[in-house]
Specification:
The complex is a heterodimer of chains A (316) and B (391). Helices cover 54% and strands 15% of the residues of chain A. Chain A has 316 residues and is an alpha/beta fold. Chain B has a domain of 214 residues: Rossmann fold, CATH 3.40.50. In chain B, the strands form two sheets. An eight-stranded mixed β-sheet of chain B has the order 3-4-2-5-1-8-9-10, sandwiched between helices. A two-stranded antiparallel ribbon of chain B has the order 6-7. Classes of the chains: A alpha/beta (316), B alpha/beta (391). Chains A and B meet through helix 3, helix 4, helix 5, helix 7 and helix 8 of A and helix 7, helix 11, helix 12, helix 13 and helix 15 of B.
């Protein structure tokens, strides 16, 4: 299995709420540890990276958030302006266009245009020969992609536009992007899952539609949020017995100890249910699944990302 | 407060929230609970978990509502005094129906339905799913066959994406402005106005003539219906603001989700949309039971001084006792974090409108799971407190 961090472009996708942004950030940290100059792109203007890395407003700048690790938040409007400026090259003409009300309508109304320029910008960042003036090259571009449902649509945009525009510059651009993102030597798509019924189903659906609609395979699946298996089945049975005995002893004994035992039994049930989902994901996807721990932390900060990065390094 | 009180006199309950917070489950649980209390309820959902759908006896939900067999509830000891109907939203079908309804003639209808751009967007256009969900809601409300409609909104990153959908739809159909300068004619395209001409040549350079032609054709055909579409979007928007409608925010106890919840609540107020309450799912319970009256900010977890020794005594296994203790510390830390976040939320919202559901040890994916959730959603604050104590 080739390491997804050895590609030039890496899409991290998954259902909402599974920790996609945190995994994307952790992948960035791992890549940086391997000496790769890396940039993490956010596409939904969530500014999650700013809060994870304690930096103020990443925005539409290639911001260095840690040594060798950059972040960038793609604003489709800015990306469109940048693209058109590159295409038109004549500044007054371009300005005329942006001042035109009709053009504003055009840009807002054209379905998928925002997605196209967004993925176009991602592609541009991944070029060794950057189109943007003075753009430095990155070894790896990591995209915190939209949640699964929209994610497929997002990845399909270049193909859609390539098909609609039969000839012309958009067609050429869209085809070039499509070729790049479907080239397994250059681009990798990874999914983040969560050890529950729905997210596992969605990950399996994502894998299927990627294959059917784009001919792409998931490079890696990260099962995030796994509780440690702290207790064996025998130990759980024993604790249940002790707890029952204690509860029967009406008000005697330590209420705190009872609470701790209930928490331990809860942990055991959760970990067991999660392992079932992990097993199901492994057997039904037939892919390598990297297990990532649940982070028992009050906030997902830099330390949390570091912990996740360690687990990714161990699992990849 | 509980969900029944929060929904008093309401005909529409819109469950909003960002992805992954248990919106679908909460919508189903609310609908089931209200139906059990005697109402005729329809729940409109996007993508129910397969096991949940199966458990409701709905292997394939269609774009039409279907009655859920009351026997299924009886089997789980739930007395169903009303009716529960469910449907799965199909955005593309709803969009097609809408085109059919508004198209002035068959030719226009077919031209749109067959337009390549339409085919691409009817499913994928940002906001189209959200809008189509509202559209269906509006349609069902007009038909007035139910006492209560519960809408499980499509998964969005922001809960807010949903309330902006009618605006976006209107903006989209108003792309008709394009047809004024791009009229397909026999000689390709006729361009109106001088700056239009300049603009056109620039656009052509960027996009290529084909794409422009398809787009122009699309907006041209759509333009004939834009009026009807915009008016309808306006009425859909009005429905959201009516007294019989309420927004229920579904969220999780993590700080990001809570902050987004507060933001959502403010935005609803600004937009003068009716806010019903907040359901916070997956709240880590405090096993020491001092979780307080719906999360009092100053509740303190008791010191754990004597605990290691007590556990060693009870279990007679030092290693096991140490693991139980370490796990308990982590559990308590999560409970403390959630308590703090919940207090933060309660302080910011006006009135008593927060209902917490604990993080269950196992996934909720069947009727008995929904019943378990409902014990919290429909219980009194005191009952919830007792259940959270988890004895």
């Amino acid at each position: 299995m080739p390491n997804p961090l050895d590609k030039r472009l890496l899409f991290v996708t998954g259902k909402g709420g599974v920790g996609k942004s945190t995994v994307a950030a952790a992948l960035g940290v791992v890549a940086t540890r391997q000496g790769k100059r890396t940039i993490i792109c956010e596409v939904a203007q969530q500014e999650r990276m700013s809060s994870v890395f304690h930096t103020q407003g990443v925005g539409y700048h290639e911001t260095e958030i840690a040594p060798g690790l950059f972040a960038f938040s793609i604003d489709p409007q800015r990306a469109l302006e940048e693209y058109l400026l590159m295409q038109i090259k004549i500044k007054p003409l371009y300005e005329l266009m942006f001042k035109n009300r009709i053009f504003t309508y055009f840009a807002a109304a054209t379905p998928g245009l925002r997605e196209l320029v967004t993925i176009g910008k991602v592609w541009e960042l991944a070029q060794l020969d950057r189109r943007v003036k003075r753009g430095a090259k990155y070894d790896l571009v990591i995209v915190d992609a939209p949640a699964t449902g929209h994610g497929i649509g997002f990845l399909r945009t270049p193909k859609t536009f390539g098909d609609i525009a039969r000839v012309g510059p958009v067609k050429r651009q869209a085809d070039a992007i499509y070729k790049f993102i479907t080239d397994p030597a250059l681009t990798s798509v990874c999914a983040v899952a969560w050890p529950e019924e729905m997210p596992v189903n969605e990950t399996l659906d994502l894998r299927r539609s990627l294959r059917e609609e784009l001919g792409l395979d998931l490079d890696e699946i990260f099962m995030n949020g796994l509780y440690p298996e702290l207790f064996g089945a025998d130990e759980a049975a024993e604790m249940r017995e002790v707890l029952e005995r204690e509860q029967a002893a009406n008000g005697e004994g330590s209420p705190l100890a009872r609470a701790a035992l209930r928490a331990a039994l809860s942990e055991h049930r959760r970990a067991t249910a999660q392992q079932e989902q992990l097993g199901r994901l492994r057997s039904e996807s037939g892919e390598q699944v990297v297990a990532l721990p649940f982070l028992f932390r009050p906030r997902l900060d830099m330390d949390a990302v570091g912990e996740l990065a360690d687990a990714i390094e161990a699992g990849l | 407060m509980n969900v029944e009180e929060l929904l008093e006199g309401k005909q529409i309950c819109i469950c909003a929230g960002s992805g992954g917070v248990g919106k679908t489950t909460t919508s189903a649980a609310i609908a089931m609970g209200m139906a059990a209390r005697g109402l005729k309820v329809a729940v409109l959902t996007i993508d129910p978990a397969r096991r949940l759908a199966n458990s409701l006896g709905l292997p394939e939900l269609g774009n039409e509502e279907r009655l859920i067999d009351p026997e299924r509830f009886a089997a789980h000891g739930i007395e169903m005094r009303g009716e529960l109907w469910a449907m799965m939203l199909d955005a593309k079908r709803t969009f097609d129906d809408l085109v059919e309804r508004h198209a002035p003639d068959e030719e226009t209808r077919d031209r749109i339905l067959q337009n390549r751009i339409y085919q691409e967007i009817s499913n994928a256009m940002a906001g189209s799913q959200e809008y189509m969900a509202m559209e269906k809601l509006y349609e069902l409300h007009q038909e007035a066959r139910y006492d209560l409609l519960v809408l499980d909104t499509p998964p969005t990153r922001h809960a807010l994406d949903f309330i902006d959908a009618p605006e976006r739809m209107t903006r989209f159909v108003e792309g008709r402005s394009l047809q004024f300068f791009l009229k397909p004619g026999r000689l390709g395209m006729r361009v109106v106005g001088r700056s239009g001409g300049m603009l056109f040549s620039v656009l052509k350079r960027v996009t290529g003539i084909d794409l422009l032609q398809d787009l122009s054709e699309f907006f041209q055909s759509f333009g004939d219906m834009a009026q009807g579409f915009s008016e309808r979007a306006q009425r859909v928007k009005e429905l959201l603001g009516r007294r019989e409608t309420t927004f229920m925010l579904v969220t999780a106890p993590e700080r990001d989700a809570i902050d987004e919840g507060v933001f959502f609540w403010r935005r609803l107020k600004e937009a003068r949309l009716p806010f019903g309450g907040v359901v916070v799912n997956k709240v880590h319970r405090d096993f020491t039971a001092e979780i307080g009256a719906e999360f009092v900010p100053d509740a303190v977890s008791p010191p754990l001084d004597g605990l290691p020794a007590d556990l060693r005594g009870l279990l007679g296994d030092d290693d096991l006792a140490a693991r139980v203790y370490a796990n308990f510390e982590r559990y308590q830390a999560l409970a403390a974090r959630d308590r703090e976040n919940m207090a933060h939320l309660t302080e910011r919202l006006e009135g008593d409108c927060v209902v917490c559901v604990p993080y269950f040890d196992e996934d909720v994916h069947d009727i008995s799971g929904l019943a378990q959730v409902n014990a919290y959603l429909f219980g009194s604050a005191a009952e919830r407190r007792e259940m959270f104590a988890g004895v």
